[in-house]
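Section handout 9: paired folding examples.
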Amino acid sequence: MLVRVMVLPGGMAGANRTRVSTELQSRRAGLPHAVFLQRVADEPATSPDVRLGQGAFLALRFVDLLAPDREPPTPDVFRYQWAATERYCAELSGEGTEASHLSCIVRAAGEAHRDGNLQMLAPALFAYALYLEQESYFDEAEDALLTMINVGGGRLPTSDAISAWMRLGRVRRLQAAFDQADDAYAEAGRIAASIGDRQAVLISQVGQTNVVYFRGNLSEAECRWRSILADTVGTSYRVVMAQAEHGLGNLLNLRSLPHESAPHLWRAYELYEEESLQLRALNDLGIVLLRLGDVAAAESALAEVVRRDRPGENHLNALIELMNCASYRRDRLGFERWRERCLEQIPHAPPNVRADFSLKAGIGYARFGNERRAENELRKSLEIATAHGLNELVFRIEPILAGAKECGAPEHVESAAPEFAYDIASLKEVSASLATLGTES
């Protein structure tokens, strides 16, 4: 009874359909928010995760009643649906963080309708989208953000609209939906430019440059990173500087310039003020240090990430790199231990992380002489990267796969040696600074 009431159809906009409605067109061809009901495919119907997915579906259908492109419900209908949805969410109250988010959304939607003010609804939806992203439910996070944008329409504060489009770009990029990600970042930049918010414009350019980078166009990405850094000279845009330093550092590593990369990544770590972003930079620095042959420093950086970060994409990346460090040192037990920990999170990881895991696992098996498993993992990595248009990864995997076939261990490709032997003051400073991390807390 409850589900039938909650999916009552609403009116659609006519000829003046907005950009936002266009974003949702494909979703509305089917059942809105049905992505949350897909959890039943992976779990028993009575599991908490499935029940939470059903609760999210109902809560967001309730929010849809406030959309500007549909006929408002009568007060009696709204009150009934509010009470019914609130009652269902109350039954989920013991199911943890996600249940709390859903209760907040339902309460905020009811108060928004009563007071005619969306002030509390947008933050509730945004917080839920962040939670879903952290849990690697990227398609669900996208749905929550699109709901925020659609229901808010022109009533959203400009800062909230910019944040929503920016985050939508990130979530789409994590799903390797690069064209749609670029569109979202561009829309965020357009809104920011319309109000003269130069910092937000630059942040949207950071997002678009990330899209170029993950598509594998490194030359264009490097030009854009350096341009953004030049535009921040003389400004107080610390977060933009940090993101540009971080992006440039990763890019220089891919262009076989790890000695130039490491100082950029350390500067990013120092510039970031949010711990989760600091730990992303530290994870990437660990990768570079391994490539430079400083395994102890690399493992120190990566272990710090595992110690301080919560489960999620960056935490998983650090586990993957620790697995890679273990195979580098020919520590078979360590390799298997880290691999097992990775497998706990891999099923829900984004495509680029799944491809990277299979790549590093394949390299590890090759180092231990298991050619069959090495080739299987490398082929799996190549299939994931090819299917999702991850060109940069494809370019890296193909020669490694060829090398594994030829000699059994792709050391000539993946930092066996040390690959680089630079004695540069800036690298010594990075290593010295990194050595103090464990004593800071």
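Moving on to protein 2 of 2.
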Amino acid sequence: MGQGLVSDAECFTVTREMIMIGRKIILFGAICVAFGIGLGSYLVGDSRMNVPLVADAKAAGGVVKLPVGTAPDRYVYYPGTEALKPDEIRLFACGTGLPSARRDQAATCWLVELGNGDKFLFDIGTGSMVNVAALMIPYDFLDKVFLSHLHTDHWGDLSSLWAGGWTAGRTGPLKIWGPSGAVREMGTAYAIEHFLKAFTWDARTRNYFLSPAPGKIEVTEFDYRAENAVVYQENGVTIRSWPAIHAGDGPISYALEWNGLKIVIGGDTFPNKWYIKYATNADVAIHETFLLPNQLVKYYGQSPSAALGVGTFIHTSPQAFGKVMSTIKPRHAIGYHFFNEEGTRFGIYEGVRETYSGPLSLAVDNMVWNITKDNINIRMAVSPDQAWAVAGPTPPPKPPARGTVPDPMTKEIKAGRWNVQDAQGAMIDAFKKETGLK
């Protein structure tokens, strides 16, 4: 490849550590230029193949014209500060890693926000709720979850969304969509039924003090074998599914269609005929690109035979990912499902570029894509580590009336309470007076 700038997506992806330092607002443009000079003949920005390096260099954030002004070009996203345009989609990577979640990469979770106000979670893998919560979106708006399959790295944090949303502002039930299985006990409905059974103690103790309504889960299970089937259609949004090939019968891929835009969320899958057929010409196509076999041996503790099977038969290799994207030709390709670090990203990038030369992001957590028919803008989010839940427009439901929900605590245990009224009585009286409680 010839000399050129690293593309925006690749610069975000390949220079992960530099970007994260960018939370302290480093000069992103300067980093891109320095990186491009050093590796210009190696990592080529496909959209700028013929543009001289120096001609495109500029200060990060654009030009600030006044001493009290702001940087006009935000290369970071601050959650809660930007209203979506009516024709715009915002895609957020809440989890891009592996089952053994890391602090900087949770397991799989994608949030899609639409300009009509709708929001959809696709998978809710282990550890991902930390990133979801940091977006400070009212939990009433995060009540729709679409599961691609039932490996824990794709639904392991459902308990956090279920209980966390229940205690922090969701006013109605959580809604789950997911595939059936080859037998009933391998399907989504069975999984949620037994999820609730496993959390019986949790639910019954909360039901007594909180409204039971947000603790309910509504499940829509659909046939995993159906091709390009409509599984959701409301408010101008259509979500379709088709079979995926991963570990056993049941996994699926999704496509979200809205306002003439199409986002494909592949889940975990080996390259397959359905993805090729139904993801062609998507605006954004998400597909796993797994660790190379030698990386699985070196970093993930797998034997060579297991690494070869996992990396090239159960999952999708970087080279195979590239062939998929070269075939379906999306406006923008997103690869994920590996720990994106210094020891892995360059080998994976090289593998993808053996077979694909189009627009690409190798995703990390907190990466954001704003998508319209004319542009795809890629940034990193800067969010607080100590985010509080944000109230939505619907007032929280009142606790159940006494006697309507069984008391989960016996008189024997209640009799063990120690009297602390002298310590907290004044505080309780003041709070009641302040809030009008009797």
